Amino acid sequence: MTPAISAQRAEPQVPTNASSSGSVSDTAPLMPETLKKAVEHINQLANLPDFKGATQIFVQMNEQQKTIEDKNGELAKLKDAIDGLYLRHQSLTTEMAELRTENNTLQGQLEEKEEEVSEGSRKADALQKQVDSLLSEIDGYVKNHSEFEEKKKENENKINKLELSESTLKEQLASERGKNQKLEADKALLEKSMQSIKGKLQKLINFTAGHSNESESSMLEQFSELWNYANDKLSAVIQEDITPDRLSVIKFLPEAEDMPLLASNSEASKTMRLAVMLAILSKQIDEEIFQPNYLSSDKRNFREVLTEVAYIDPEKESFLRSLLLSIDPEEQEKELERRSERIGQVVPQILTNLLSGEQGEKLQEAVHDVVQMAIRTWTPIQHAQKKYEPVFDYKNWDKKDWKGFKPAGKILNSGQAGENPAALCKFAVFPAMSSFGLDMDEILKPFALLVKSQKLYVAAEEDKKASTKQEINEASSPTSGKMSNKRRPSNAQQAQPGSNGHGATNGKGHFLGQ
Questions:
Q1: Can you give the C-alpha Rg of the chain in angstroms?
Q2: CB 375 within 8 A of CB 336
Q3: Alpha-carbon distance 221 to 451, whole Å?
Q4: Of 34, 69, 161, 341, which residue is 20 to 30 A from 512 by alpha carbon distance?
Q5: CA proximity to 297, closest of 306, 307, 287, 305
């Protein structure tokens, strides 16, 4: 039921409650009939149970309305309280934000203060270290001061002792001054004596021929060039063919009977003849030119003696050699000319039967040129500070110190590796160059050896075997016996150069011997 209906029903209820059922009839004449019916109807409704329940509900509703009004009042109060709380909350929020801002500011200031405190702590630590260091230094100074005081006392004691010994030292000084004056006088005498000795020594040095300033490498290079020059000069002579009529009367040296020499114009025969000629020439140059001096006609005396001295005292040998070279240099120059002329005579005489007449003249010119170059080559070696000697005896040296002989313009096989030169070599065509020192000697330039395993030597042996076989066949023929004997005279008919008095064999036999 709505509040409007409740109000309509409540309005006629007042008179009903005000009068009893008997009073209605008292007022009836005053009401119109309709109103009367309405009142009756209302009375009927008021007596109904539903109306009573509705009335109770209306009463309850009034009570509830009052309760609602009370609650609304309370709610209004609560709203006012909430509004107050909200305003308080807003105020507190603002205050809290301000407090946070202030707190952050204070936190930053606190961190800055903490950093300042930390920096202050670091500075304090550094200052503490400085203080500790200063204290340590002070301790050191105190210690040093103590040591200084001790040393000062020691020095004072020493000074006292020195002062006590001063008089003694003065006496000793006076004595030493006297000795010094005497020593000065002795020194003056010694210097005067030394000057005299130096003068005599310089005079003695001036007596010597002096020493060459040429380097060892340059001298060795010239030594090699000498034999290359000899090889070229004699090779040019030997390369010319010999006429058949001259070949028929060629005579070979008896000492070279075991050599594969052949009266032929073949390349192998020419090379063998060239090797023999160069070996004879090199040994003659060694005996006549390669001497320490030219004072004596005995070619072995000074050379052997000075070599022995070089083993014992190289400096003494150098001085003696220079001194000997200074003795009568003009006469030594003349002796050198005589020796070079002797080579120019002896070598062609030894080899004359191996060449034609025209080749003999060319050989004499070639030998003269080679000898002159040998003199130019030997002069700086002869005057060197160090002792140098040509060596022909290859048997006492290692394989590394020798090489196979190579004719000018030819490239020959020097033999198989590992072969023993003493067993395979025929002779040394060119000597090695050695140096002598204290108890030692050393090969500086290798030997040039004629080796059996060389191709041209093998070819010459084959030519000789073929020629010998042909001669045997011709000798067995009655018609060719005289021709064979004429082509190859016997050794008894050949010239004997070893007995010609020119020293080609050193008076000791084989001209190709060691």
A1: 73
A2: yes
A3: 24
A4: 341
A5: 287
239: Cα separation from own chain's centroid: 52
CA 114/CA 103 separation, integer angstroms = 16
Name the token pair of 391.
């060596």
Q: Quote the CA–CA distance of 123 and 116 in Å, as a whole number.
A: 10
Nearest Cα to Cα of residue 383 among 433, 318, 436? 318
Question: Which residues have a Cβ under 8 Å from the Cβ of 509 and sit 6 or more positions away?
Answer: 255, 498
238 Cβ neighbours under 8 A, 6+ residues apart? 270, 273, 274, 277, 355, 359
495, amino acid identity: A
Convert the pLDDT of each residue in 18-74 to its tens digit: 444 444 444 445 557 888 888 887 887 777 777 777 778 888 888 888 889 888 888
The total number of residues written for the chain in this structure? 514
Q: What is the pLDDT of residues 92-106, one digit of tens each?
A: 999 889 898 988 999
Following DSSP, what letter does each residue of 43-91 receive, concatenated? HHHHHSHHHHHHHHHHHHHHHHHHHHHHHHHHHHHHHHHHHHHHHHHHH
The rounded mean pLDDT for the chain is: 76
Cβ neighbourhood burial of 433 (10 Å; 0-12, 13-18, 19+) = buried
Q: How many whole angstroms separate alpha carbon 409 and alpha carbon 233?
A: 12
Q: Which residues are within 8 A (CB) of 54 and not within 5 positions of it... i.e. 6 or more apart?
A: 1, 6, 9
Q: E strands within 382-501? A: 387-391, 402-404, 425-430, 432-437, 440-445, 447-451
User: What interhelical angle do 3-10 and 49-207 show, nearest 10?
Assistant: 150
The residue among 204, 363, 357, 338 whose CA lies nearest residue 274 is 363
The residues pairing with 450 across neighbouring beta strands, listed in sequence order, are 427
- Tell me the domain boundaries of the chain: 219-499
Does this model's pTM top 0.90? My answer is: no
Three-state DSSP at 423 gives helix
Confidence of residue 300 (pLDDT cuts 50, 70, 90): low
Q: Mind giving me the DSSP string for 214-265?
A: --HHHHHHHHHHHHHHHHHHHHHHHTSPPPHHHHTT----GGGTTS---SS-
